[in-house]
Amino acid sequence: MTDRTLARGSTAVTAVSYLALLAAVASPLALLFGLSLQIAFVLPGVAIARAIAGPALGWLVPLAFGPLLGQALGSLALTAVWAAGGRGIWVALLAPALVSLVVLPARRLHGRWRLPATSSGDRIALAALLLIVPVVVGLPFAHLGEITADGQFYRAYFTADYVWRRAVVAELAKGAFLPVNPYFHGDTLHYYWMPHLLTAAQYRFASAWATLDELLLIRSVCIDAFFVTFLYGMVRVFGVRAWASAAGVAFVIVSSSFEGIYAWFDFVNRGVPLHELTNLNIDAITRWYIRGIPIDGLQRLLFYQPHHAVGYVAGLMGVLAVSRRTRVFDPVAMAVAGLLLGLSIAISSFAGVMFTAGAALFEAYSVVRQLDWRRGLAHASASAIPLALASGLVLALQYVDATGSIVEFGVNRVATQRFWLVTALSFGPVLIVSIAAIAIIVQAERQDLGELGALAAACVVFYFFINVRDHQDVYVGWLVGHLLFMSATVLAGILFDHVWTMPNRRQAMAGVVAVGLAGLPTTVIDVYNTQDITNNRGAPGFMWTLRLTPDDRQAFHWIRLNTRPEEVIQVDPFTRDTETWAYLPAFAERRMAAGLPISMVPLKKYQEGSEQVRAIFDEPALAAYERAVRAGINYVLIGPPERHAHEGVEERLDGLPDLMPLLFRNGTISIYGVRAAR
Asked: CA-CA distance, 604 to 79, in Å (whole number)?
C-alpha cells in the first residue's frame, strides 16, 4: 500500500467516523444548518492563517491554527453586530464576512513567525489522531438528552457545564442586549457569554425545527476536532515529527491521570465490587478522597467545554506569537499577540489572564537578560493597546459582577492539601513523561521552549496564590490543569520523537506505553460513566443521572407555548440546589426572580434573593402573592421538591384563585399565575 493510498484511506475512515457521530446527535436538517454556520465561521480564519504562513508551507498551519482563530474573531464580530441591534440569521453570515476583510492585511504579516511546513506524514498522523474525538465523546454525546418513555436524561457530569450552557444560550437567543441574568431579576448576565452567541443566533432562528441539544452538540463536535488539530499543529511548531506529534497529543488526552488505577486498586484492597467504579466522579477523586483541587483531564474539555477550548487556543496562539517571532524587535508581532491574548480574555476570561501572564513573563525575561529596555517599552506598549481594549470590552459586557469581590489573593489552602499526592494522581502519567522530556531537552541544550516554562511558572503562581471565591476554592485549579496538559503535549511529542531514535528504543517505548496504560483507566471509566444514563443511584447531594420526567417535559411544553420569553417563573431555589438548579432557565427557557446558579460569583446576592422568594412557598396566600408581585414573578411552579419541602403549599395557593389562578396541572406539576397588582 502506497503512502498516498494510506492517506486517502485514513482520511476516509476519519470522515465517516465524524459523519456517524454527527448523525447520532442531530437530524439531517439540523445538521446541515448547524454545520454550515460552523464552517462559515471557520473559513475566514483558515484564510487568514494561510495568508500569514504563505502557500509554501502547505495546509498544516491554516488547518491547525485557522479554524479556532476564525471562531474567536467571528465571535467578536458577531458581538459587535449583536450590540448594534442585528438579530436575524443574517448576523451569523455577516460576522464571518467582516472577519474575511482581515485576509488582505494579514498578508503583510507573512514571515514574522517561525511556522512548520507540511510534511508527508501529516495527513495520516492527523487523520488517525482525529479519531480520538468520536472515540471519546461518541457515546456520551449520543446519549446526552436521550428521550424515552420514562423521560429525558442527562448525566450529572454535564449539569455544571452543559446544562449551564443550555441556559446561557436560551437566554442569549431572546435577543436582549445586554443579556438578562435568568437567576436574578433586574440584573445583567455576569458571565463570559461571547463564545455562545453563534449558537444563540442559530437557535433564535431555527428553534421550531432544531433542538437546542442538536445545535450545541454539533458545535461541540466541531470545536473538539479543531482543538485536537490545533494541539497537533502546536506540537509540530516545535520541530516534532508527524507521528510523534500525534502520539504526544493522544497520550495527554487519554492517559493524563492515575486516578482510575488508584481507585481500581483501592476497591480491590477493600473488597469493594469493581462495578462501584460507576459511582465515582473518577477524574475528581483527588477532591473526594484527599480534599485537594481536582484537575480535569482534556477528555472533559472535549465533553462539555467548547467555549473554553476556543479561549485556550486564542491564548496559546498569543503566547506563540510572542515566542516564535522571527524578529527580536517587532512591535507589530507583539500587537498581534496582544490581540490574540485579548480574544482569550474576552472568551475565557480567567484563562486569558493566565496566558497573558505567561507571555509577559517570557518577554520580560528576554528583555531583562539582554537589557533591551527600548524593545521592552515598545513591545509592552504595542501589546497593551489590544489588551486594554479587551479589558474594556469585558467591563462593557459586564462579565464581572460589581456587587462583590470574586478574586482572593493569598495561599489557597486547598491547593496545598497533600499537594504531592494530588499531583501524582492527577498528573502522574503526564508528569513522568514531561520529566523525561525535560531531561532530554536539557541534554540537547534546546533553547526554544522557554514559553512553556514561563506559562508553567505563571500557572504555579495562580494555582497557589490566586483563588476565585464561591467555587469551592477549586476553579483556578481546573484551568491550571488544562493549561499544563496542553503544554505537556509538546513535551510528550518530544519524548516520543527522541525515544524512536534511541538504540534501545523498544525497551524505552515499552516503558512509555506502560505509563500510558496505567493512565488509561481514568479515561475509560470516565467515558463509560459519562455516557451511562441508566445509573439512577444517588451521589452525595445529587443523583448520578438528571431525569426530566414526562410531567416535567409536558410542563416545559406548556410554558413555552403559553408564556412570553421574558416572563419570570419561580421555583424554590434551595430545594432544587445541586441537581436541578438550572431547571427553569435551561429547560423551560424562562427566567427566575432568584436562583442559585453554581457558575455565578459572588453567590451572596443569589443566596439572599433566594431566601426572599423561598418565603412564597410557606407564607399565607395573600402574603405570598404580594411578595411575588414585588419580586416581579409572573408564575409560580410547584413540583415534587416544592411539595415535599413546603407542606400544604398548593392548598394555600388554591385559596387565592382571583390573584393566583391555577393555570396548569398534571400528575406532579402545578403552575399558578400571578396577576399584576392594579
From this structure: 29
